[in-house]
Design goal:
The protein is α/β, with parallel strands linked by helices. The chain has five helices and four strands, in the order βαβααβαβα. The protein has a single domain, classed as 3-Layer(aba) Sandwich (Rossmann fold).
């Protein structure tokens, strides 16, 4: 999953349990990538810093909000694996707590670059997070989708130069 010419760029989205936020970020980013015709240039996945929900479908409230917006969440939750730091080019945390967990678990020389998702949204202040909607109502799940969409667009814009094949006949 490297970003060299003709190779796929790996992007992994991470939250705590991998049932609310990171599956949404994964689905939104995959949809943005597909809309640009770049699906073959990316490997996109999501994981949780804990594996409490491993094998479970996304939270029904996340799935309902996604369906309302025309997206399907087909992901099954999984925990972060040690090899993810070498498999992916980017590991994107949804909040600072999970970013710190990633930093603590990263090997000395990870291949993956670590970042907060909202750092790719030019309208977000430094350190902005995607809040966990788990203990709230439907408005929290709608907010997660809005924030992931804005940041996903920014992420794609940043990564586009490394995923667009050069045209030798310009």
């Amino acid at each position: 999953m490297t970003s060299g010419a003709g190779e796929r760029l790996g992007v992994l989205f991470v939250c705590m349990g991998n049932i609310c936020r990171s599956p949404v970020a994964e689905a939104i980013f995959a949809d943005l990538v597909a809309a640009e015709g770049l699906g073959s240039r990316f490997d996109i996945d999501s994981a949780g810093t804990i594996d409490l929900h491993a094998g479970e479908a996304p939270d029904p409230r996340s799935a309902a909000e996604a369906a309302r917006r025309g997206l399907a969440l087909r992901h099954r939750a999984r925990g972060l694996r040690p090899d993810d730091f070498q498999r992916f080019d980017w590991i994107i945390a949804l909040d600072a707590h999970n970013l710190e967990a990633l930093r603590a678990r990263a090997p000395a020389k990870p291949r993956a670059r670590l970042a907060l998702l909202r750092s790719f949204d030019p309208l977000s202040p430094p350190g902005a997070e995607v809040p966990d909607p788990y203990y709230g109502g439907p408005e929290g799940f709608a907010l997660v989708h809005d924030l992931c969409l804005r940041a996903g667009r920014g992420l794609l814009e940043q990564l586009r130069p490394t995923t667009t094949p050069a045209n030798p006949r310009q």
